[in-house]
Design a protein that fits this description.
Radius of gyration: 20 Å
GO cellular component, one term: endoplasmic reticulum membrane
Number of strands: 0
Structural class: mainly alpha
Enzyme class: hydrolase
Number of domains: 1
Strand content: under 5%
Pfam families: Rce1-like
Oligomer: single chain
Number of helices: 7
Order of helices and strands: HHHHHHH
Catalytic activity: Hydrolyzes the peptide bond -P2-(S-farnesyl or geranylgeranyl)C-P1'-P2'-P3'-COOH where P1' and P2' are amino acids with aliphatic sidechains and P3' is any C-terminal residue
GO molecular function: metalloendopeptidase activity
Shape: flat
């Protein structure tokens, strides 16, 4: 929900970046506002440094957080602008919070000095199958994104129209 609220607060200023335009440019609305939202998470590095996390680890963690919040923000902005509805954004955000980031630790060979954790060891044996399922999910996402965000699914004839796709 926060990416949409952040976009709602920052989109008006970006929409006036081209005064001769009669409608807001889609590029900055979809690409820049989520990037600003991602960059707004840089303060987490200070908290991690205060907690005693080494600077390199804190920096890498914040870079990862900026990356995935920006990517999700781009997706949420696309859904919101395409459908004109908050429903797909809220459902997608809930699903992402439920699933979390995928754990890819099983891809790395375990360090030889330490025994591998049991779950990682079991997953390591099936890494080809798991990667196949990940690839299938990414492929289906790419194929179904546009059809599943069809504005016709989110409004009736007499209802509100999508914001930018007419």
């Amino acid at each position: 929900m926060l990416p949409i609220l952040y976009q709602a607060a920052s989109s008006p200023s970006l929409s006036h970046s081209r005064p001769s335009s009669s409608s807001p440019p889609l590029g900055p609305l979809i690409l820049l506002t989520p990037l600003f939202f991602g960059l707004a998470h840089t303060h987490h590095a200070l908290q991690r440094l205060r907690d005693g996390v080494p600077a390199r680890i804190a920096f890498l963690g914040v870079c990862l957080q900026i990356a995935y919040t920006s990517i999700f923000g781009w997706h949420a902005a696309f859904l919101f602008l395409r459908t004109g509805s908050l429903l797909p954004c809220v459902l997608t955000h809930s699903f992402c919070n439920l699933m979390g980031l995928p754990n890819l630790a099983f891809l790395l060979p375990p360090p030889s000095l330490l025994p591998p954790p049991p779950s990682s060891f079991i997953l390591h044996a099936h890494r080809g199958k798991i990667l196949g399922v990940y690839a299938l999910g990414i492929g289906l996402f790419a194929i179904l994104l546009y059809p599943c965000s069809d504005p016709q699914w989110y409004y009736r004839e007499e209802g509100p129209r999508p914001l930018y796709w007419r």
